[in-house]
Amino acid sequence: MDPKTMEEKMKRTMEEEEEKSGSHGKRKKGGMLTMPFIFSNEVCDKLAVVGFNANMISYLTTQLHLPLTKASNTLTNFNGTGSLTPLLGAFIADAFAGRFWTISVASIIYVLGMTLLTTSASLPQLRPPPCKPGGSSDQPCVEANGGQLAVLYIALLLGAVGSGGIRPCVVAFGADQFDEKDSKQRTRTWKYFNWYYFVMGGSMLVALTVLVYVQDNIGWGWGLGIPTILMFLSVVTLVSGYPLYRMLDPAGSPFTRLVQVCVSAFKKRKANASSESGSLYHNDDLDRPISVGGRLLHTDQMKFLDKAAVVTEEDNPKAPDLWRLNTVHRVEELKQVIRMGPIWAAGILLFTSYAQQHTFSLQQAKTMDRRLIASSSFQIPAGSMSVFTMSAMLLTIVLYDRLLVPLARRFTGLDRGISVLLRMGIGFTISVLPTLLAGFVEVKRKKAAADHGLTHSAHATIPIPVFWLAPQYCLHGVAEAFMSIGHLEFFYDQSPESMKSTATALLWTAISAGNYMSTLLVTAVHKYSAGADGSNWLPDNNLNVGRLEYFYWLLTLLQVLNLIYYICCAKMYTYKPIQLHKVDDQDTEEDGVELTSRDRV
């Protein structure tokens, strides 16, 4: 071969490599290499949130001197608000900002909130003066005044807003790093959710041990200052990984599209969609930005919405007015969101039950013998009891991923082992047990108090080991490993392709609704269980004279009814039908194959 021919061949080869690199450059980004940068943000978020929430009931009652029921409702209201803001963060990410920039800005807001919270806990002027347990004539306990509470609430609000931008976007942003059109990376996506929750659980474990110990034994200033510093460093780490990330462009406001379909269907409510089914509107060019992973196919459910895709004489298919005419894909987006609604609602009561771990269960622990061994002087902080929940959750995740999935795969043929709906159903079933068991433990705890003459002593230590509470905490952890991770997988997989952040935010809205439901339930029980003699199921200051076990068993009954409801919803649920885009070697799009998400989950 002459030198000129060889030179031309080498030049052609280099051009082909450059073209290949250019066309596939974005696909080569992402993957496991990005996980440390992304997970660092989530770890520090959980250190801050869990480190404070696990012990917040103690902070509100011992530092700010709030009554127990008021402190409990303050905690659940804050958790409810903090779990509602992810909808706002998800909207901003999906509509115009993208997930990376939403996470980055939200993290900065979060750091500001944590800094103010640390200041609030450190300066004596921002807290009421200390007093003896139960108060005394010399040192009466004074409840925090309006100004002191205002500083606390502003800090919590900043934290809630920042967390709202982090929580839904970190989950989806991490999953975005794996290209589902690549068969090798597709199987890593469902594993990602397991390991995301494992890393999150590990950080919670550190928060429940190290940070809670620091708060109880060194001071709240250090206990909140440490995660504040770590959160600042995580922002630096997240931004430094920018060149490595696989970025997906925002596709516009998903809420606007859903409203457009509703308005279009209403305007054409008199149209006969069934007889004009062949006229349903399709426009691949219009849908391309919102159907990156595949196009949703038409379903026969909720046919009244199909009228939004009926082409009439007044419509211009070439330049459609989206407030009058929408594509089948956009109509199916709304249908899919509606289909997911009942499954979402089933999670509310589960999180109502979870909320009690940080309120009444923690107060139970504070009255029990928390020594590791009888001869030891070291006591387990009451806020650290959730270690049993986290440990059980982490162990269950490992056993699920390494043992259950390979075993189940032999029978089901699914890469995930079992479907997400079955996984969630197992979690719902197990979640009935902790509250049932908690009621019996409370009976035993009060009996021990009565046997030792401590019924009317709110702050005395009852000689019954705190480890009696461990089984209920562990069962909560096992249930969460199945239900919460399954919830995340379900929302991410079953949501329309352009609504991943919004869909994963639905988990946090379920948590929010669960916390608000807890507030409502506690308030109602406290009000209507009050007797003329001053008795109450949920007394303000002394659980020993209350009927907390009745409250737990009421929760158990509600969860049994909720399980029946979930089973009915799961049986009737229709998996989204999707036509995946098939890409050949020349990067030209060909017709894909039709499948439902059942084939993937």
Describe this structure in words.
By secondary structure, this protein is mainly alpha-helical. Among the domains are: 31-133 and 140-250, Growth Hormone, Chain: A, CATH 1.20.1250.20; 254-333, no CATH class. The chain is 64% helix and 3% strand. It has 17 helices and seven strands. The strands form three sheets. Strands 1-4-7 form a three-stranded antiparallel beta sheet. A two-stranded parallel sheet has the order 2-3. Residues 13-27 and 583-595 have low confidence and may be disordered.
Mind telling me the CATH superfamily name of the domain at 31-133 and 140-250?
A: MFS general substrate transporter like domains
Distance between the termini: 55 Å
The dominant shape is globular
Number of strands: 7
- List low-pLDDT spans: 13-27, 583-595
Please report the number of helical segments: 17
Helical fraction equals 55-70%
- Given helix and strand content, the structural type is mainly alpha
Pfam families: PTR2
InterPro entries: MFS_trans_sf, POT_fam
GO molecular function: transmembrane transporter activity
Subcellular location: Membrane
List the helices and strands and how they pair.
Elements: H1 3-28, H2 35-63, H3 68-84, H4 86-97, H5 99-122, H6 146-176, H7 183-217, H8 220-240, H9 254-267, H10 284-287, E1 295-296, H11 328-355, H12 360-366, E2 368-369, H13 387-412, H14 420-451, E3 462-465, H15 470-494, H16 500-528, H17 548-572, E4 577-579, E5 582-583, E6 589-590, E7 594-596
Helix pairs in contact: 2-3, 2-6, 2-7, 2-8, 3-6, 3-16, 4-5, 4-6, 4-16, 5-6, 5-8, 6-16, 7-8, 7-13, 7-15, 9-11, 11-15, 11-16, 11-17, 13-15, 14-15, 14-17, 15-16
